[in-house]
Amino acid sequence: MKQILLTLFFLLQGTFFYAAVTEVSGVAKDYAGKNIQLLTYTDKIINEMRILGETTVDTSGAFSFSVNLHSVIEAFIPMELSRGFIYLVPGKSYRISLPPYAERSLAQKLDPYFEPDDYLLDCKNLEKGEFNYQMMEFEDAFDYYTMKHITYGAEPDTINKSIADLRRIFADLDDDFQFQFKEYRYLLLSSMSPKISPDTLISSLNRMGADVANPAFWDVFNNLFDDFIKRERDGKEESILFDNILKTKNIKLYFGLIANRYGITDSNLKELVGIKLLYDLVNSGLYDRFEVVEMLRKLGGGILSEQNRSLLADVVVKVSINMIGTPAPDFVGIDENGKERRLSDFKGKYVYVNFCNGQIERTKRDLDVLSRFSETYKSNMLVVNLFLYDNRKALKNMAAPYKGNMVFLNAGQPDLLKKAFDLKNVPSFMLIDKNSNFMLTQGAEPNDELRLLMERLLKE
User: Fold this and answer.
1) Do 109 and 162 fall within a single domain?
2) Burial grade of 368 (CB within 10 A; 0-12, 13-18, 19 or more)
3) Nearest of 305, 245, 256, 252 to residue 281 by alpha carbon
């Protein structure tokens, strides 16, 4: 017992010793009064993020973050139109600047595929030899060689020559993070050649292992495994085996296939591949979505890493969004009188949710139709019009003609609501049952088909 306590003591002391406070600060007058965050990606399968720091920019524009770090990490500050990235080294201080504040247009806010531009944050101490400067130089050179092979071809010999050049030019980038980063980039460069088999590339990645804190790992990982089963299944006997695995939900056989057929013996990498392959299959159309999600739910029985089990839980939540019979998120909205309302407030009735925006031409027509629906089924169904990116005055104007026969709400946090409900379009329509579970998420538009469904439900 004494030996165990001593071991724990030294482990804790080591953790404390190697952790160091990293400071990030700057002045951005355009952002005065705004909340900004310093984030990092925990994975690049579903792009989950972890908050490293959060602060409100003061009236003078000053802001700062203090982060406890044990190793180098890639972090970023999300803004409306861009994401500014920076590599943070434990114990270092960074003085950064942000671009002038610019808000997204309504079209950008409503576009589910809008992505901010990525760039390296402007650091006042970005000098030759500094970590971020070195990474910028390497990435510029890597991009040059990548474009060269896109333009002039990617024979294995020329790829290997490019890798040799990069090894020689950047031999001084020997920090553990930088070394792994470079090796993953070299493997990504190798993947450009159609003459280098995927099996060879996967074998190389298996030898290197999965460094999930290194963004270059995720680039090569996704390059190799995006839609992997879809690409592999045509005309191969493994597809029959995989079909059987999915049908029987045999987790042991599933990981056995990954290890034996594709040679992935690194435990961490094998678990990540197992999650990735199923995640890509959910909406692939190759298999029944419910079967794939059920397989994902059972996958935890074969995963040893606590970090990967946590990732799997996040994946299951993401793929279960909008699935019939699953609980709908308890959204928060503000009505035209400033009162806060929640989805759970309406439990006991069918709730028809119209995700809309007052500046979209179709919204007015939909409201007229939904008003009639509301009158017809008012004893059993409640119509909730949930407006995204509208102000209270606009909401009042939209609600006034309907004299309270529908609920009008402004979404409190529209960006989070879009993510929570996985909205691909605005307007979108969903039917929630009396227990606040998803009942209809596709084909729920206000039309005769919905009217027939409601009549059938009420007869039951």
Assistant:
1) no
2) exposed
3) 245
Identity of residue 434: K
**How far apart are the C-alpha atoms of 410 and 357, rounded to whole Å?**
9
Kind and range of the H or E run holding 26: strand 20-27
Q: Angle formed by the axes of helices 267-281 and 251-262, to 10°? A: 110
As for how many domains the chain has, the answer is 4
pLDDT at 239 (0 to 100):
74
Rounded Cα–Cα distance for residues 104 and 83 (Å): 13
Asked if residue 401 belongs to a domain, the reply is: yes
**Predicted pLDDT at 7:** 47
Specify the pLDDT at position 379: 87
Look at residue 99 and give its three-state secondary structure: coil
Spatial contact of 94 and 77, defined as CB atoms under 8 Å apart = no
What are 346-403's pLDDT values in tens digits? 999 999 999 999 999 999 999 999 999 899 888 889 999 999 999 999 999 999 999 8
Task: Tell me what pLDDT residue 76 has.
Answer: 98
Give the residue numbers spanning the domain of 403.
332-459
Radius of gyration (C-alpha) of the chain in whole angstroms = 26
Q: Which amino acid is at 143?
A: D
User: Helix, strand or coil for residue 199?
Assistant: helix
In this structure, the answer to whether residues 301 and 392 fall within a common structural domain is no
- pLDDT surpassing 80 at residue 54: yes
Are residues 426 and 364 part of one domain? yes
Residues 120 and 140 in one domain: no
55-101 pLDDT tens trace: 999 999 999 999 999 999 999 999 999 999 999 999 999 999 999 99
Question: What DSSP assignment string belongs to 313-331?
Answer: HHHHHHHTTT-TTSBPP--
In the beta sheet, which residues pair with residue 49? 41
pLDDT of amino acid 456: 83
Domain C-terminal end among 100, 126, 152: 126
At residue 6, the pLDDT reads 43
- Least Cα distance to 321 among 424, 435, 215 occurs for 424
State the Cα torsion 244-248-249-251 to the nearest 10°.
-70
Mean of pLDDT values over 208-212: 96
161 phi and psi, to 5 degrees?
A: -65, -40
